Amino acid sequence: MISEPFIKARPVIENIENHHHQAYYVGGCVRDFLLKRPIGDVDITTSATPNIIQKIFAKVIPVGIEHGTVIVLHDDVPYEVTTFRVEGSYSDQRHPDSVTFINQIDKDLERRDFTINALAMDLSGNIIDLFGGKQDIKKKVIRTVGNGYDRFKEDSLRIIRAIRFASQLGFTIDPQTLNEMKEVSKDISNLAIERITKEFGKMFAGQYLKNGIYYLKESESYMYLPIFKDIPDLIHKIPDSLQPLHSFGEFIAFFHLLNTRVSVIDWVKNWKCSNQVKQEAVAIVKAYSLFEKAGIDNWLVYTLDCQYYEGFTNIMNIFHPELLDENELDKLYNSLPIHSRQELCMNGNDLLSWYPNIKGGPWIQKLLTSIEKEIVFGNLENRKKDIKDWIKWNPPEIN
Ligand code: ATP
Ligand code: MG
Questions:
Q1: Which atom of ligand 1 is nearest to the CA of 40?
Q2: Which residue, 37, 155, 297, 314, shows the most beta carbons closer than 10 Å to its own?
Q3: 253, 281 Cβ separation under 8 angstroms
């Protein structure tokens, strides 16, 4: 049964075919279709050049024209459409030095990393399988297309990708492929870290993470990765029971808490992470330290942004299993008297008017936080009169 994402992408392939070019579904979507896994992005491979694709579709984003890739927007869904190509070497460890567009799919499939990813499917559901990918899917094996040593030498990111797929799919890595990974693993040091970070995010979110970590150790590739290479012990400290980490922010929070000598900022810098990832890791770690001081209380739930509740719960479940139920934070949040400082019935200006003889300064923030805390814990009503009374007994500290 052809599933929804393929049906939605069908008009894209039909349009290319109507213009007398070949086009196929390719790569991960075909693999996942055969595995009956949820399908992520539907990628398309075609004999039409990027120029032709730009001419025959209304909405095209030229993301990587020189490498043959454009994004076609159809019904608001983006599709990566890549021209059949063969690649030169990857001397910058990022992109092939040169690509040559070709007219036939076979060489295009040959340049792909693993047999399970070198599958294409036409509109009738016929699968092109030149390297035994279907058989490997059945046997649950990850194996390179062609000689592994050469393929890993061409692009050592494929070593990390093999481990990523082992973690996502629960497959074994073919013993010869694994040996070849070991032989080339040193080359990982030359890769652009952003490429590794992207694969690692997917690896650590994998349903079969334990399998992925096994191969991370077994292939010795961790010895050539930032931070892991300096603290070889780190990888061996990962608990066997580790559950998938759904974001890179969680990944960093986890490894920082596993070895607090490496700061969140060190991880962010070494792994070139976005600000968004940094913010998530910082928020989770901050909440964790509040937990260590005072347990799960109103203040922790109040100060942690709701978008990080799931990440924090995950991290808690690793280090303190069964201490925190899935919806516990939400329940506590819903019971809070206020949910943000905006809800306070007064602000810094009120404090200034109540103390006309004291100049503005850090005391304002300090006092506001104390008031906020009292209210959040339910010790003080969020009413001006009550707050004014409370301040009488807790006057501002002016230094
Ligand atoms: P996902 O479902 O996670 O997106 P995917 O298999 O689609 O998995 P992508 O990274 O999106 O993985 O790559 C799309 C396809 O491009 C792969 O299935 C593979 O055929 C090919 N590919 C990607 N990266 C490489 C690489 N470094 N070397 C060779 N082929 C690659
Ligand atoms: Mg993909």
A1: 2
A2: 155
A3: yes
- Residues 6 or more apart in contact with residue 120 via CB below 8 angstroms: 24, 25, 26, 30, 45, 105, 109, 127, 128
Nearest-CA residue for ligand 1 atom 4 is 28
Opening angle at CA 139, ends 9 and 243, nearest 5:
75
Domains in the chain (CATH in brackets) are 1-139 (3.30.460.10), 341-393 (1.10.246.80)
The per-residue pLDDT for range 298-346, each reduced to its tens digit, is 999 999 999 999 999 999 999 998 888 878 899 999 999 999 999 999 9
CA distance 262 to 224: 17
Distance 361 CA to ligand 1 centre (A): 55
For residues 84 and 353, give the distance between their C-alpha atoms in angstroms, rounded to a whole number.
72
Query: Residues 382, 338: contact at Cβ < 8 Å?
Result: yes
Identify residue 65 by its one-letter amino acid code: I
Give the distance from CA 112 to its chain's centroid: 22
Write the pLDDT tens digit of every residue in 259-307.
Answer: 999 999 999 999 999 999 999 999 999 999 999 999 999 999 999 999 9
Amino acid at 311: G
Tell me if 161 sits within 8 A of 127, measured CB to CB. no
Residue that has been written with the tokens 């579709």 in this structure: 57
